[in-house]
Amino acid sequence: MSSSDHLPVQIPDGFAPLGTSGTRLLEIERAKASFSPAELREYIYGNEYLERQSRILPIVENEPAFDKSQIHYMSRGDKYRHGLRKDKRMVQLTREHGWSAEDVKVAEELVDMPAAFGLHNSMFLKTLRSQSNDEQQELFTKPAENFEIIGCYAQTELGHGSNVQGLETTATYRPETKSFIINTPGMSSMKWWIGGLGRTADHAVVMAQLYTPDGKDGKLVKRGPFPFVVPLRDRKTRELLPGRTVMDIGPKAGYPMTDNGTAIFNNVEIPHINFLAKFANVDPESGRFTAPKHDKVAYGTMTFIRANIVQQARMILARSATVAIRYCAVRRQFADRDAPQTDDGRKPSESQVLNYLLVQARIFPPLVQAFALHYTGRAMMTAYNASQAALEEGDFSLLADVHASSSGLKSLSTIMASNAIEECRRACGGHGYSLSGGLASLYADYLPQVTWEGDSYMISQQTGRYLFKTMRSVLADRNSPANKANDTAQYITRYVDNPNAKAPFKYAGDLSDPQIFVDAFAHRAAYLTATALRKRDIEKRTWNDLLIDIFRMSTAHSQFILVNNFAQAIMHDEELASKPAVHRIMTTCFELFACYTMDTEASEFLSSGYLQPKQHELLRSRTHALLAELRPQAVPLVDAWGCPDYLLNSALGRADGNVYPALVRFAQGEPLNETRFNVAIDEDELEVGKEQGVRAWTKL
Amino acid sequence: MSSSDHLPVQIPDGFAPLGTSGTRLLEIERAKASFSPAELREYIYGNEYLERQSRILPIVENEPAFDKSQIHYMSRGDKYRHGLRKDKRMVQLTREHGWSAEDVKVAEELVDMPAAFGLHNSMFLKTLRSQSNDEQQELFTKPAENFEIIGCYAQTELGHGSNVQGLETTATYRPETKSFIINTPGMSSMKWWIGGLGRTADHAVVMAQLYTPDGKDGKLVKRGPFPFVVPLRDRKTRELLPGRTVMDIGPKAGYPMTDNGTAIFNNVEIPHINFLAKFANVDPESGRFTAPKHDKVAYGTMTFIRANIVQQARMILARSATVAIRYCAVRRQFADRDAPQTDDGRKPSESQVLNYLLVQARIFPPLVQAFALHYTGRAMMTAYNASQAALEEGDFSLLADVHASSSGLKSLSTIMASNAIEECRRACGGHGYSLSGGLASLYADYLPQVTWEGDSYMISQQTGRYLFKTMRSVLADRNSPANKANDTAQYITRYVDNPNAKAPFKYAGDLSDPQIFVDAFAHRAAYLTATALRKRDIEKRTWNDLLIDIFRMSTAHSQFILVNNFAQAIMHDEELASKPAVHRIMTTCFELFACYTMDTEASEFLSSGYLQPKQHELLRSRTHALLAELRPQAVPLVDAWGCPDYLLNSALGRADGNVYPALVRFAQGEPLNETRFNVAIDEDELEVGKEQGVRAWTKL
Fold it and tell me: Which residues does the UniProt record annotate as the domain Acyl-CoA oxidase C-alpha1 (chains A, B) (predicted)?
């Protein structure tokens, strides 16, 4: 019998799938590699990251508090508990091993269980650090860094998410007592969705509309939203302090370990020092308000967060492609329609699902999109650093372009990644629906990325505004140096100079020039901008009338950036050029990314007259040919991304290909299997007893 | 205080959202109706259905066993128990009220909790009824109908889903004992995914490869997959019988109440009578096998099931649109950019999210798609009945067209509906992510429809094969009467006669002729077929090479059917014509459906040369204009679908618009709120106590 004696149902020893094993099938795939996956991996991540990961992985994957094998059987409450335990243990391990912030980041990525302390570690600490004066650093930041207080960041309200200026919670200064009164005026003002607020946090940074007395007649005047530190619970007894109503908001599609919470403040009084006062000021005596100087770094912070979102989306795409590609290499279904009979007259054996072109068309795009996001994420970090350096020199010229592009890229990359998870899950057929596959829960947990940090549909307006502004400026004076300062202004200028340009390719071979795609995507983004700008400035259409056009412009601009950064690497990245085999396969990935994306969006290339119908047909054929070309390299390519089994947590995506035994073990773990149920219609009792241990087989 | 005294956290009496209430906002929307929602509802469903629903709804929504309010807080095990209780109670109520099969269907639709008996009621009973001889009807069907035995339908295996011919489970006939030996030869042969098998069923219909002795030398010969009745458990003690290993396969993305299970049979012996023998025969004495006559009704059954899938997809679209449209009418965020200040100088108030064009572009298409599927589902039922009637006259001519179209429509409608749920969920912003919204769980539960009953990507090959065949036949003799027999042959003939046709519209007003769209979609489907057929028959490309083209053909053909059936109703449905206000709004819905779909697929219309770039621009403008035109009718239109609150089970989609109080109640129900947690890093204990009842507010 199997050695897993605690499992309620056991299966026979040596019971294996019929036919070629998954392990063998993956070995055969790996033998086809035209490049070294290890070399590509090093090129992607760099040695420093890989060394860090290989140091930390064995610690976290062997830590009982970080075990992932039981999570899918747990109730939501037990998932919260598991997450809280994990968060405590992470702090302990950080102290034991003396981990740096980078180490912890890698550990959290691998453990991949956002939980109770998630917002304490990010927004709570970040806000305290950036918005506190020296006294507040001592009073709040240090205890928070030592986990003596646990906090959350309370901005969103039941009635207000995106529109921060519309927040309703009030903080009214009372000079007599030198205190602020925090109040929740109505149900729509309840703080809502706040990570860690539900059961965990004892403190909150609360964003509230500041009211201070006006100089002349002492009338209260609204000053806009500012951050306040509000104690919530007694740090020891964990009882709520008076005036606070706090609870978890209940289960969500994902994120079960995080206690998103709500709070009502009923005239809660906090001392003057709890107003985070680095940028604005309320005079303690008079209550006189001094407005903050413009927070120039805010745009920078957003860009940094968004660059991280793009880098994270890259890993989501790589994970999804890894699971789907490995599983589809192990799964076999139907013989090829055109396959000949074998020599001895038997039917041909079943084909790997990965061989089907329609499957390739669904799961190879996420793989090449991961590489595209990789180069753009890298470029965003470089641009962020350059713009920060320029800022310190008092130069604001880089900021607008970097910020506008980061909005569109946040939008595009999160929509792209979430769609890819689901496409890969569906490509895994029936087994993709089991939580053991790892993609269904990844999807559920990833979805908030589409909505938070700027809703990915709404946020496109920031990019649109910038494209309008740039084109207006080019139209006003196309020779101004400002209009040569960055890629956006340059491609818009090129379009304005030659709006009737045509795609110059005629043969499939022409498509091997990356510049073809850079020019095409640039022309399309500029064409959409020109068309929409005409509606705005000449037809005087309302902004709302143009929201669809603006979303399309933002998408087109962002796709241009992805194509451009990927193309630049293919053409000019010296490290890549020095690795010919890696360069060769990256070139195929680039071509597939560019052709696939262009085909998907073909109507806009056709409508502008840039692309002719015959060229579109050529493009589609080339896309199909590239899928077939990539086929033998698919498993080596996902191996190159090097997602550890511990991270994937997927029966389908295992590196060793032992898919079916892993599915069986997942079934064996289901707690329902311990109980026998009563199906008699007229009996209320639902259970009739416990299963009697091991069943069948050896007993026959 | 609130009267809900059992809730761990209470909120103050009279605590309401600020600003105009959701109820008032929906009242204002309803006052804008240009037609009678009740009249449209009657037109869609017919009186008989509505009377049935209104008779059954009060019974099921007041039945404690069918309560939906606690489900999202339950563990998976408790969800299974809730489902089992619901299934037993449904049988009791059916007996108490003397419900017909139609009544039960309506009750199950409203309760919407597929659970333990789901496959007993469908495939188990259906197979017994259609495949049993008279003796077997007495032995198996009658006890099953009385719920004396509970069954499941065991076809899928761990290694085989779509490819039924590849099943590995064996049933070997042994003339000596007049019995079959059922055996699971390896892990890949384990029955898997079988609904109700995990914990509930005591019997299974097992599809197994039949082996019988060959006449000459008695050598065992494989005869293909056939159904066998296999007892699994003792009906009273519920203990597994010897030789059976059975368990639940563990949690899935959705369907928590259903115990999908697995089984291993280790040489399980069943008597000859357990072979369901209506169509094939194994002689008890000799074991001589007689092959079944071709089961001519099988295609019919599939068509019937798929027509039901299309009708169900229609309701999924209507539900999703109902939730998103009502919520977006209640939710307000940001003031319109172009809105003027109010007369007294205040900022304009926030706009309903439903006013934003980009939101309309995401949530109105599902609404009009629901109407499109409605007409096509109705047409499929008519076609099914006609083809069954013809079959009984020995006329097979209708079968192929009806079956091929039903494959493509199954594929298109399930992909359309699943994507629409998620798009509507995202359009609900942050609150769409809460399970209280109802769409996240609807999505998770709907997803299997995309995969089962023929994987919606793979199944398109059936439609493709038929389109190839039809075009070959037209090319061979375009005057043959067979090539005028149905819409498909007719539009292919039209295309062959005039492959270079052009879209005839020039002005927006031209688009008000439905025939414009019928012709356009027909031309595109034929164009794609012609292009792919050239590759197959002239270039001799492999079938696999063409799978993407074939999927596109199938989609195009199915979209033609949707457009055509909707257009026919607008042009020729007399009942519709007799209700001018309803006809008017349906015409707008049709135009939006046709324009939106054509814009989405524009690249293929452009590539064929049928559509010119200028026409595409016109089409896009018209689509945007139609969204704005539909805006004031959106709430009345979803009201017309009449999805009861009990069915929606959504805090966001409530008919009364009281969204925010419902979100708060959902939070109050979360069991985690009863416990206080210990966050001290160095203490292992996770809990510190119970919350002390009512908090804050009145105590200050």
Answer: 299-467
| Nearest C-alpha in B relative to A452 | B430
Give the pLDDT confidence of A670-682 residue by residue, as tens digits. Answer: 999 999 999 999 9
Domain ranges, residue B184: 121-293
Identify the active-site residue in B61, B145, B453, B629: B453
Q: Is residue A695 part of a domain?
A: no
ipTM: 0.95
User: Are both B277 and B359 inside the same structural domain?
Assistant: no
Model pLDDT for residues A79-135, shown as the tens digit of each residue:
999 999 999 999 999 999 999 999 999 999 999 999 999 999 999 999 999 999 999
Answer whether A679 sits within 8 Å of B542, measured CB to CB.
no
Q: Do A72 and B251 touch (CB under 8 A)?
A: yes
Among B192, B544, B692, select the one facing A355 at the smallest CB separation. Answer: B544
Q: Which residues of B touch A440 (CB under 8 A)?
A: 252-253, 444
What is the domain-level CATH number for residue B361?
A: 1.20.140.10
Structure tokens that stand for B158 in this block: 């761990």
Give the separation between CA B83 and CA B65, rounded to whole angstroms: 9
Report yes or no: A182 and A169 within 8 Å, Cβ to Cβ. Answer: yes
A180: left (phi over 0), alpha (psi -120 to 50) or beta: beta
Residue B322 lies in a domain: yes
Is B182 contained in some domain?
yes
Q: What's the mean per-residue pLDDT of chain B?
A: 93
Give the DSSP letter string of B157-180: BTTBSS-GGG---EEEEETTTTEE
Q: Which two tokens stand for residue B312?
A: 């169900």
Choose the final residue of a domain: A66, A94, A113.
A113
Any residues with CB less than 8 A from the CB of A64 and at least 6 apart, and which?
A: none
Residue B306 and residue B267 in one domain: no
CATH number at residue B91: 1.10.540.10
Going by pLDDT thresholds of 50, 70 and 90, the confidence category of residue A698 is: very low
Pick from A660, A661, A656, A624: nearest CA to A639: A656
Across the interface, whether the CB atoms of A603 and B609 are under 8 A apart is answered: no
Phi, psi of B112, rounded to the nearest 5 degrees: 55, 50
pLDDT at residue A298, as a whole number: 64
**Pairing relation of β-strands B203-213 and B151-154?**
parallel
Q: Select the residue of A190, A609, A616 nearest B613 (Cβ to Cβ).
A: A609
Q: How do residues A48-58 score in pLDDT, each as one tens digit? A: 999 999 999 99
Predicted confidence (pLDDT) per residue in B67-113, tens digit: 999 999 999 999 999 999 999 999 999 999 999 999 999 999 999 99
What's the gap in Å between the CA of A60 and the closest CA on chain B? Answer: 18
CATH of the domain at B194: 2.40.110.10
pLDDT digits (tens, 9 = 90+) for A155-186: 999 998 878 889 999 999 999 999 999 999 99
Q: Which residue, among B570, B597, B567, has the nearest Cα to B412 in the 3D structure?
A: B597
**Inter-chain CB proximity B686 and A543 less than 8 Å:** no
pLDDT at B392: 82
Domain boundary among B605, B624, B639: B639
Give the torsion sign (CA, B604, B610, B614, B615): negative
- Calculate how close chain A gets to B456, using CA atoms only, in Å: 10
pLDDT band at B8; cut points 50, 70, 90: low
Rounded to 10 degrees, the C-alpha dihedral B612/B617/A412/A425 comes to -60
Give catalytic status of residue B453 as yes or no: yes
pTM of the model: 0.96
Locate tokens 């570690």: which residue? Answer: A121
Residues A503 and A463 in one domain: yes
Domain count, chain B: 3
CA–CA separation, A261 and A266 (whole Å): 17
Contacts A551 to B, Cβ<8 Å: 358
CA distance B169 to chain A (A): 11
Beta carbons of B429 and A9 less than 8 Å apart: no
